[in-house]
Amino acid sequence: xPLHSPLFKLLHPGSGLKLTQRAMEEVPQSEYMxxxxxxxxxxxxxxxxxRIAAPMAAASVLQYLVQLVSVVAVGHLGQLxxxxxxxxxxxxxxxxxxxxxx
Length: 102
Fold this sequence. Notes:
Layout: H1 6-11, H2 21-26, H3 29-33, H4 39-75, H5 79-101
């Protein structure tokens, strides 16, 4: 289904639809430029998204660090202990933590 709106004609001049003077008069320039982002608006949106995503990123990093610290601490006890903790951590990742996050 082809789009024949004046806005589509203005935004996509190479679409094969003829751009007439009447179509240009029907849609003011402010109407088809209102969705364009300036650099300042983009930075504002990026800050908002970062503010929302930062706690999740911090939680993910801290969850990984808990596992890393336990493996490093047990690594000083010996090879058998290290392999046991590595298997337990892998099992916890596959079962427990994945269910906790979802």
